[in-house]
Amino acid sequence: MAQSESSTLTIPSSGKIPRHIAIIMDGNGRWARQRMLPRIAGHRRGSEAVRELVENAARLGIEYVTLFAFSSENWRRPPEEVSMLMQLFISNLENEISRLHQAGIRVRIIGDLSRLGQRLETLIADAHQLTRNNKRLTLTVAVNYGGRWDILQAVNALLRDHPEKMREPVTEADLSPYLSMGDACEPDLFIRTGGEQRISNFLLWQLAYTELYFTDALWPDFNRASLEAAIRSYQQRERRFGRTSEQCCAPES
Ligand code: IPE
Ligand code: IPE
Ligand code: MG
Question: Which active-site residues does the annotation give?
Answer without folding.
Answer: 26, 74
